[in-house]
Each structure stands twice: as C-alpha cells, then as structure tokens.
C-alpha cells in the first residue's frame, strides 16, 4: 500500500504529480491546527509532511503516530523540535545549498540598500521632493573598502563575504563556532571574538542559525560596542537579535542603519516602528524568494521526502535515526 503524505503549501504541478506517483496525497484544509478534528483525522494517517514554516510541536507529533519524515522547504529548522523528532524516530530533511547564492544576493543587497540609503532616497524622488541637489544630511556610506563583519561564517555567510571581499574589496572579519581556514585563505578573512568584530566592523551581518545559544546573541550591550556609523544587517532569524534593543540603538544613534529581512515576529505586527524608520530597510523574509530558487528548494524537499519514505538516503538529513 502507498504511504500517505500531507503537502503543506505550494508545490508546482509537476512536483505534486511526482509525489502522487509514489504516495497518496491526503486531502486537507491547509491547516496544522490540531485543535481541529479534521486536521487530527488527516494527521493520524500521514507518513510524511512537506512544507515550510511548519509549526511542529510535541502535541502535533502525538497526533501523527505514523509520521516518519518531515521535509521542510527551508534550510533553517528552528521551528522544529529536532530532539523530539529523533526520540520518536522521525527524520527531518531540509534544503541547504540550493538557496545559498540567492540568499547571499539579498544579504548583499541589504548591505547596499542600508549603506547607500537606497529606499529612503528613492522615496525622496517618488514623493516629488527632489528639487535641488541633495546635501550632506542625505549623503550615505561607502561600501567598497569598508570592513564587513560576518556573525556566522557557514554557507550563506561565506557567500556574502565572497561578494564583499572579491567584488568590493572589503576586509572580512568573522566570528563563528569553528575556524574556517580555507575561507581565510580565499578571502583574507580574519576570525575574531564577537566583541572585536562588533567594535571594528563598518557592516555587521548576521547569518547564524537560531538556536538556544544564538537567541538574543545581539542585544543592548552588543549594539553599544558597534561604531555609531555601523550598518547592521540580519538575514538569519529575528530572534537572534533583541529587537527592542535594535530599535533603541537605531532611534538613539548608537548605530546608523539596519537592513532586515527577518523579525522577532513575522509577519511584522502593525505596532512595530521598524518599517516606519527612515534608517531601516525592512523586507518580508524574502532572501530565498526568487522563482528559480523557490522551485529548486521545493524540488529538493520533494526529493528528500521521496527518498526517505522509500527507505533510501535523502540528500539532506538533519538528524540521524538509528
Ligand atoms: N532570510 C532568509 O530567507 C533565509 C535565512 N536563512 C537563515 O540563515 C541561516 C544560515 O544558513 P546557512 O549559512 O546555510 O547555514 P550554515 O550551517 O552553513 O551556517 C551557519 C554558521 O553558523 C555557525 N554557528 C552556529 N551556531 C553558532 C554559534 N552559537 N556561534 C557562532 N557560530 C555559530 C556555524 O558554525 P560551524 O561552521 O562551526 O558549524 C556555521 O558556520 C539558516 O539557519 C537560516 O536561519 C537561510 C536562508 C534564507
Ligand atoms: O528562511 C529561510 C530558510 O530557508 O531557512
């Protein structure tokens, strides 16, 4: 008998057809709200779930006794309790690599947009306020030759640093759990303590995953170490930063500006001051959101799910099931 799966979110028709060849695609309302009887009914039958931003809780896992594989269409998996999955013999797969360059493109775009005040100055033109040459109060910051500090130097961190070092002649500092000697050689990057990086960088860019260790890694103390001219960019996860401290640092000039793709709460609540601040470029979590990359991520997640449910090795397993 075919195994059953829940497809949460969008796959293209060809990907759905590929899965339907091997598995029964369970009909459902698109919700994982286990307080609803119809959701519990579907979960009770499912062997695999594929989707992104899946709100996986122990209660949801209790409702899915046949579940063998979760295939997330993302590289990050901070919303998923991996240890709990492992305890229950459930495999988690994710989609690294295929999104690295696209995410790095957006990370560097945020460095440029926040550094050169692109959104703020485009607004001047849009609102018909460009009546004479702009003065120093609207001048921006150089990017080339400035020091780029990478907090996290994995796949995406390295790809952003590569753009900065090789394209813009930026000296690279990095703080990372492990040293990266090959990247030091390739990019002339220097590893240092986080505090040193914060004090010496002109651009600080966050690319660490959200974990217990990295939650609120950057708070009031860390902002106070940065240069008043520093530009802060976060494309990792909002909760790596104490958002109240970030807002305060931007409001009182502790740092100069920020480019943000991720927030403590997403979508941003209407009460957040961040989108209204002239020195903030705020985006709706879109670093990997190009047609090509979202397609590649979905395909990778489909491949992972199919392989894992067929008892073969998936391309990207997060945990190991004995
Ligand atoms: N905005 C968006 O749309 C996107 C956001 N992301 C986010 O980016 C994150 C990074 O992705 P990716 O680069 O592929 O992941 P990687 O695992 O390749 O890189 C993460 C790096 O962070 C380092 N690290 C982990 N924990 C710590 C710590 N406590 N202190 C210092 N360094 C640490 C790791 O060190 P080591 O090498 O030693 O293990 C690793 O080098 C994802 O987890 C996701 O949250 C990703 C894609 C799109
Ligand atoms: O935030 C996106 C991801 O892939 O992780």
TrEMBL record:
<dbReference type="InterPro" id="IPR036291">
    <property type="entry name" value="NAD(P)-bd_dom_sf"/>
</dbReference>
<feature type="domain" description="D-isomer specific 2-hydroxyacid dehydrogenase catalytic">
    <location>
        <begin position="28"/>
        <end position="319"/>
    </location>
</feature>
<dbReference type="InterPro" id="IPR029753">
    <property type="entry name" value="D-isomer_DH_CS"/>
</dbReference>
<comment type="similarity">
    <text>Belongs to the D-isomer specific 2-hydroxyacid dehydrogenase family. GhrB subfamily.</text>
</comment>
<dbReference type="GO" id="GO:0030267">
    <property type="term" value="F:glyoxylate reductase (NADPH) activity"/>
</dbReference>
<dbReference type="Pfam" id="PF00389">
    <property type="entry name" value="2-Hacid_dh"/>
</dbReference>
<dbReference type="InterPro" id="IPR006140">
    <property type="entry name" value="D-isomer_DH_NAD-bd"/>
</dbReference>
<dbReference type="Pfam" id="PF02826">
    <property type="entry name" value="2-Hacid_dh_C"/>
</dbReference>
<keyword id="KW-0520">NAD</keyword>
<dbReference type="InterPro" id="IPR006139">
    <property type="entry name" value="D-isomer_2_OHA_DH_cat_dom"/>
</dbReference>
<keyword id="KW-0560">Oxidoreductase</keyword>
<feature type="domain" description="D-isomer specific 2-hydroxyacid dehydrogenase NAD-binding">
    <location>
        <begin position="108"/>
        <end position="287"/>
    </location>
</feature>
<dbReference type="GO" id="GO:0005829">
    <property type="term" value="C:cytosol"/>
</dbReference>
<protein>
    <recommendedName>
        <fullName>Glyoxylate/hydroxypyruvate reductase B</fullName>
        <ecNumber>1.1.1.79</ecNumber>
        <ecNumber>1.1.1.81</ecNumber>
    </recommendedName>
</protein>
<dbReference type="GO" id="GO:0016618">
    <property type="term" value="F:hydroxypyruvate reductase [NAD(P)H] activity"/>
</dbReference>
<dbReference type="InterPro" id="IPR050223">
    <property type="entry name" value="D-isomer_2-hydroxyacid_DH"/>
</dbReference>
<dbReference type="GO" id="GO:0051287">
    <property type="term" value="F:NAD binding"/>
</dbReference>
